[in-house]
Amino acid sequence: MSALQAIEYNLRELGYSxxxxxxxxxxxxxxxxxxxxxxxxxxxxxPESFRSAAFGVIEDCGENVPxxxxxxRALGAPLFLSISGQRVSVWxxxxxxxxxxxxxxxxxxxxxxxxxxxxxWSPQALHRAKSLPPSSPQQLDFVDLGLLPAIEHEIQTxxxxxxxxxxxxxxxxxxxxxxxxxxxLVTFRLLAAKILKDREHEAATQWARGDVKAVLDGIAAYYKxxxxxxxxxxxxxxxxxxxxxxxxxAVSLQNxxxxxxxxxxxxxLVTADTRKRFGTHSTPRQIADYVLDRLDLSxxxxxxxxxxxxxxxxxxxxVAAVRHLQDLLPTDWSPEKRHDFLLPRLxxxxxxxxxxxxxxLSLILADYPNANGWQIQPNDxxxxxxxxxxxxxxxxxxxxPPFEDFNDRERLLYPETARASVSKARFAFMSALEARPEAxxxxxxxxxxxxxxxxxxxxxxxxLYKSIELVSLPEGIFQQARYESALVIATELRGTQQQGExxxxxxxxxxxxxxxxxxxxxxxxxxxxxxxxxxxSELWVGPLDDLWEWLADAPKLGQFAEVYRGLKWWKQQxxxxxxxxxxxxPGLYRPKESLRPFKLLPVIRYLSFRxxxxxxxxxPKRPWxxxxxxxxxxxxxxGGWKMSAAPDLSGLAASQQFFGVWPLEGGFSIExxxxxxxxxxxxxFVSEKASERSxxxxxxxxxxxxxxxxxxxLSRAVADYRTTxxxxxxGQAVDEAELEAKLRRIDxxxxxxxxxxxxxxxxxxxxxxDEHRPVPHRxxxxxxAEATDADxxxxxxxxxxxxxxxxxxxxxxxxxxxxSLEAVAELLDESASxxxxxxxxESLLAIPTDTGLVFPAIQFSGHSPxxxxxxxxxxxxxRNPWARLNYLVNPELRLDGRRPIDSLRSGEVEQVxxxxxxxxxxAAG
Length: 925
Known about the structure:
By secondary structure, this protein is an alpha+beta fold.
């Protein structure tokens, strides 16, 4: 038996049935369209693809085996075997690094090698391992979870270009609506035909080499679709031929995952115009996968599972669910058996008939090579009770709803729905909560995280689900949509006996600077976890919550200044002039051309004060002639630096793109206000609190301002900095290090006024790391002393321990409230002095308050303390009782997200002690 035969024999013994000799596939990681060949490839299941590839085998490839394997990474197999004479080597394949040799054995020891690794190399084990998200701590050490995202990113990039070329070929220069729909439908048929052709499916043998008419008719017959008569009316034969030729000669689809093709198809056809026309919207693959990963469908009874996607668009969530469910099914099931299992468990609804067809075609692509049968129902979900009926019986609801408010026509068309909510997204979310699914995953407007209009929904969410994740997404995540959005993922539906339990909330953020990385890998910027009261509407845990808690009692800007927007006109062209005119006054029009931190630029326009031009009567009545501060109303960047402010000492007016801020008598000076607005505190505040592109004057009035401020010194520092800025603008040689130092001095004086402790300063500065500050010179950040062990904050856990009394009381509420010394004595049938002694010797957790000791109720089980509590108290590194309580009642990643107190109550004492010790080691490091 040859080495290749011996490897194939052992793979079959492990359970591999999908094994291919001399397997050829496209090298999508290469710049050209070259193909690769491996002597043998084994797949965990059919159909073959980079997603199901498990092993690649090459033999006699010369001395540079690592490079030969690296050149074949696009196969998608995490393991390669190389044959050299009578020896076989095992290699781990990495996304970026050179493959690493794990083992080498002689041919006589090959059976033993496979037997030793049987449990890890089985089709089931490798398939599950490859299905894990890249951040999973449970991955096998020889599976690089970055490999699949790297392959998929290249596939999406290249196929998106190809399909875009095909569409342009079909659309011509000025497509009409009917022609555009025809082009999209033909693109699907041609793409489906190429899949069958590249995979050498027997159905394609009859027409694959024929003309484009035979191809279109053949694919329509295979999938039982209507013949493309529409295409022949609106598309010329020459265009169809050219499109098919372009696609036929493109990268081979033999080894490409079907669900990847579905996402590429869906994303290619969603343009700004088609989104508006047909109601389709594009949900990126990483968003859908992120939600499905967090929901973890394996926790549900698959036989009873029912997943519904309302407002399905192109069914991005359902396409992702197809793959996630297929990964959970036995690997030896045939594609037909998996198809029959999935059909009744996935459904969607969408008002637009074309969108329904797009959704159905996407699911067909994701389910190669099976025929149709998917349940995507055309349904006007805003009709009375329509959405409620569509969601009835759903186990999991996945949704990216429309974000728009109901317009005047729609309010007349759907009176009951519009009365329930002016917002379409709010109505969809409300309906999903009323359906009480076991889990839900929603895309929502970013305001859901904090805005008051969503507070009722947040409270309802916390009352229904024990586990919630909120994800803040930056602008630009969604194709053709420029808004910021959020994900809401909820699991663990409460039973009737769990209504009082606190909710575990995980807050996750993707910053603008990490948007591209998130779309490539699904990895967010940061996450933190806390508990929230069951009836609470404040769920979001922000990265600077400790800072805002510290400043909760600080004075607010609205106490010391008036804040108003500038002028707004019915028609912009009537409100602005380059030259003086009757009824116009000098002013500023655009912040981009006239506003810079600490300085106005000499770009003066003339603004109309004529009543017939003005949309609102109030702005022209403001005291524009007085000295004031100008601040932009629209954010100046997507990052943390959202504001610029400069003094106006010459009585200029301004458009609605500016706030005018007038200090009240006895308040701060103009220079002090300018320094506060340009400070990291103010910018972090609006960055954290604003949910839209525009800032509001009400938000600015809530800005915390310093309690004490050395105004004379600050005014001198601002004047000194502005003088050097003027010199820079005049073209004089200026030392940028000097400018940077002067700006830091201004920040230092402002922060001194807030009396921030060192760890909060460090937290604030970390928030702005890698952020470009909008000043005309370099700014490399702030200088701060090295942290000591006392103020070192290493993780979200330690940040939570620094929070103020409001957060501490929330922890106590999560612990079931507090019992008095007398109540505990009665509960344990001991004297009050004995209980006090137990607390002093750390056998009980007691929190000193103004009215005496308070004992968190959750530490007791029946008439005794829970087992392991005293041992935990003796080893936990922080002696602060509030810190101990915070650790016990918040989810702990080292305990798989469970609260330590719950693990203690379940008898998992050793696990809790081990986790608590690690917290101490981490904090000390």
